[in-house]
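Researcher: Going back to the complex we discussed earlier. I've cleaned up the inputs and rechecked each line, so this should be the final set. Can you rerun the prediction on the complete assembly and write out the structure?
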Amino acid sequence: DSGVTQTPKHLITATGQRVTLRCSPRSGDLSVYWYQQSLDQGLQFLIQYYNGEERAKGNILERFSAQQFPDLHSELNLSSLELGDSALYFCASSVGPSGGPNEQFFGPGTRLTVL
Amino acid sequence: LAKTTQPISMDSYEGQEVNITCSHNNIATNDYITWYQQFPSQGPRFIIQGYKTKVTNEVASLFIPADRKSSTLSLPRVSLSDTAVYYCLVGQRLLNTGFQKLVFGTGTRLLVSP
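Model: Rerun complete. Updated structure for the full complex:
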């Protein structure tokens, strides 16, 4: 158990819908990262927040957005869902911002299926 | 941004040493290289991290040459439970924003046989 929790574990929805994925980081960790893992794209970095502020942005679509709240939990919002958005979405947390020694601890993931 | 590449798969036998290499041509000056292990339907798990030369912990070693354009994860004596996918992760600094983009390697599927 990494100490990172993600809800829900599974999510099945239809194209065009909007969903929210939730992540609670390990106690004491200030950074939260979101990743997408699909069969054809591998692990893709989406976005990182550090202590409530956006820190780094990867291949995140405009239909996707995220935020980190004052209690440090984070939410990833996916809207206008398409079939290709079906994937495993992982959240990870770390103590500090990336760039230096910074081990990330990954949650169990949310499996999103878009029908 | 250059792609971070790894061999797609490797086969080994129990007790052997396994070396997995990752190529990362555009690594930023102050970025670290991290390796993760992933089992099916689980999140990646940290193995080892380094900046240059050699790092060793209780489960693996990481070799990084002087130019840092590649790194090699070494698993000294693999067992059946080491069958998993191994990823390298490096940070790539975006010159126009100063932000970092984290890039996972393409992943290496290691199969350990008895």
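Model: Worth noting: The longest strand of chain A covers residues 42-50.
Researcher: Good, that matches what I expected from the previous run.
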